[in-house]
Specification:
Elements (H helix, E strand, L loop, with lengths): L3 H18 L11 H11 L4 H14 L3 H5 L3 H8 L6 H16 L8 H5 L6 H10 L10 H11 L5 H14 L6 H14 L18 H7 L8
Helix pairs in contact: 1-11, 2-3, 2-6, 2-8, 5-6, 9-10, 9-11
Bound molecules: iron/sulfur cluster.
């Protein structure tokens, strides 16, 4: 449970920082759920700078799920495999096949339906709901999880921690602004609250961050 004042301050600071420093990424110029799905699967464990040209190639060649479904899987993998993590080509093609066959080419609009597509977990389904369908769905990638863990000082056991982080990710969404705050948290986590060497001095949350407070008090607790 977050105190309302702390939640409002968190939201205000994160959104103001994002307005000034958010990244300009090609998939932020679309609300097409298929394009969002492509961007999320390609971004999995991969540097954004390497993802962008592949994302553009995939969409130029296969602008819809039906176009991808009609292509041989080898052709899709030939584009995506150079990024590494080669299972993603199979996920993409498998998801496109199901969208074409089971949903008439229209991307599903509910979390449970999205999560039944190959390779789509809670995070990716949440991203499609938030970034394409404009719902206030939480999005918890590794960067957001690290930021929330540090800021709120989450110290629960791994399983309870995951539950708590999902609930925090939902609780910090201002009504009707899921898209903005999710993008903001992803950028803040990736750019400032980095796994190694967090840039706390540049962070808009530094005055009320639990991790920062512990560091100032000289805690020897390892980087969470
Ligand atoms: S102050 Fe530092 S640890 Fe806290 S959220 Fe910002 S970057 Fe992360």
């Amino acid at each position: 449970m977050i105190a309302p004042g702390k939640r409002r301050s968190f939201q205000r600071r994160v959104l103001a920082w994002y307005a000034a420093h958010g990244r300009d990424l090609p998939w932020r110029k679309t609300r097409d759920p298929y394009a969002i799905l492509v961007s999320e699967i390609l971004s999995h464990q991969t540097q954004i700078s390497r993802v962008i040209p592949v994302y553009e190639t995939v969409l130029a060649r296969y602008p819809t799920a039906e176009a991808m479904a009609a292509a041989p899987i080898e052709a899709v993998k030939a584009i995506t495999d150079p990024l590494g993590y080669k299972i993603r080509g199979r996920w993409l093609h498998g998801a496109a096949l199901q969208v074409a066959d089971r949903f008439g080419g229209v991307m599903p609009q509910t979390l449970p339906e999205l999560q039944r597509l190959p390779g789509i977990g809670r995070y990716t389904a949440g991203a499609v709901m938030s970034f394409a369908h404009q719902r206030d769905a939480p999005v918890l990638d590794t960067n957001v999880a690290r930021l929330l863990r540090r800021y709120f000082g989450v110290v629960a056991s791994p399983r309870a921690r995951t539950r708590e982080l999902w609930s925090l990710a939902a609780a910090v969404i201002p009504k009707g602004k899921g898209y903005l705050i999710n993008q903001a948290l992803m950028d803040l986590g990736a750019m400032l609250c980095r796994a190694k060497g967090p840039r706390c001095d540049a962070c808009p949350l530094r005055r009320s961050c639990d991790f920062r407070r512990m560091a100032r008090q000289g805690s020897r607790r390892p980087l969470p």
